[in-house]
Every structure is written in structure tokens, then in C-alpha cells.
Amino acid sequence: MKAALLVFLGGGLGSVLRFWIGKYLNSTNNGIPYGTFVANILGSLLIGVILGVAAKNNALSQNQTLLLATGFCGGFTTFSTFAYENHVFLKSGDFTSFALYTIASFVIGFLAVFAGLYLVK
Q1: CA gyration radius for the chain?
Q2: Whether this model's pTM surpasses 0.85
């Protein structure tokens, strides 16, 4: 029960922060949903740092890792919104934005995780 509460609290905080970032950076006028992109890349970097710190000499407890990685990063990043935004690009025929957004999200997201892990080595 304690683990579920930690994930719940972290997820709520992450979701609210993602909401604020999306509110200020996403716009129907500029094409690319920068808020979702920024949240996903920052979340990827952050989970790399968190799990890197957790693995380094057990620097974080299991509860701290649940709160931060599973909860906060899980609530902060969002695959479902990313998938829907890509659906909108495809439906509108904006194949360029679809390709740029998808490729950049995957490539930079993976690089951000690796960077986070590298930073705490």
C-alpha cells in the first residue's frame, strides 16, 4: 500500500508539472507540440539520472525510486499524448511534422536517458 501511495503522489506531481509545461508551450498555431516534447525529453533525462543514482551504491531507497522514477517521471512523461498528437499530424496530412516529431522524440529521448545515466557515473 505504501508503494502505491508513493507512486500516486509522484505521479500527481509529475502530471501537474506536465500540464503547466503543456499549457505554456503547446499551441495549435505552431504545429509541433513543444510542451509534450519538452516534458518527454526532460523526463527521459531525469529518469536516467534517478535510476543512475539509484544504481550507484544504492544511493536511493526503493521508496525514493518509486516516488521519483515510477511516480514522478511516469506522470510527467506521456506516451499517450505523444501518440495522439502524431495521429493528429497524420490525419491533417502534415507528414513532415509527424516525421520530425516522432524521430526527434525517440532519438533525443533515448539520448537523454543515456546522458542522465552518464552524468551520474
Answers
A1: 16
A2: yes
